């Protein structure tokens, strides 16, 4: 399997997960919208990294790998790496909390997020995904 094929697969999964996140927003499951948005952004960036030939790290916060290998991206995409890396980092910090809640405070995840949180996470993930999709397009794959 080629890097382009692996990239397409990861970014394709991110597309499906974004659809799930939108469904959670519609059902007002804010924590699940945040959780799935984080996963979509992570997979989109992993796909972008794979598309440029980078061995994808097996971590959820891929912002450091993206910054480290930014020189592999076309210049128009490279210019957006600081924002993309920051967004992926922000979302990764919510991964556990959106799934398990705040165990020390005894608060389930459903009580920790608002409509605004869900929408902001989804918008960031969609923008990260669009960025990764532009890389796929530049590589000649859809």
Short recap of the structure:
With 142 residues, the chain is mostly helical.
Structural class estimated from helices and strands? mainly alpha
Question: Which descriptor suits the 3D outline?
Answer: elongated
Query: What are the segments in which pLDDT stays under 50 over at least 5 consecutive residues?
Result: none
Q: What series of H and E elements makes up the topology?
A: HHHHHHH
- Largest beta-sheet details: none
Task: Bin the strand percentage.
Answer: under 5%
Mean pLDDT over all positions:
96
Give the termini distance in whole angstroms.
16 Å
Tell how many strands the DSSP assignment holds.
Answer: 0
**Tally the helices: what do you get?**
7
Rg estimate, integer Å = 15 Å
User: Helical content, roughly?
Assistant: over 70%
Tell me what the structure shows:
The protein has 7 helices and no strands. With 142 residues, the protein is an all-alpha fold.
């Amino acid at each position: 399997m080629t890097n382009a094929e692996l990239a397409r697969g990861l970014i394709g999964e991110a597309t499906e997960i974004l659809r799930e996140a939108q469904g959670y927003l519609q059902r007002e499951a804010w924590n699940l919208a945040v959780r799935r948005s984080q996963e979509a952004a992570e997979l989109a960036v992993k796909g972008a990294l794979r598309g440029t030939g980078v061995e994808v790290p097996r971590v959820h916060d891929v912002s450091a790998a993206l910054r480290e290998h930014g020189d592999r991206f076309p210049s128009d995409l490279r210019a957006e790496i600081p924002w993309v890396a920051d967004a992926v980092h922000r979302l990764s910090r919510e991964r556990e909390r959106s799934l398990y809640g705040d165990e020390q405070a005894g608060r389930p995840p459903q009580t920790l997020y608002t409509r605004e949180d869900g929408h902001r996470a989804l918008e960031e993930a969609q923008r990260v995904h669009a960025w990764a999709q532009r890389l796929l397009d530049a590589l000649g794959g859809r």
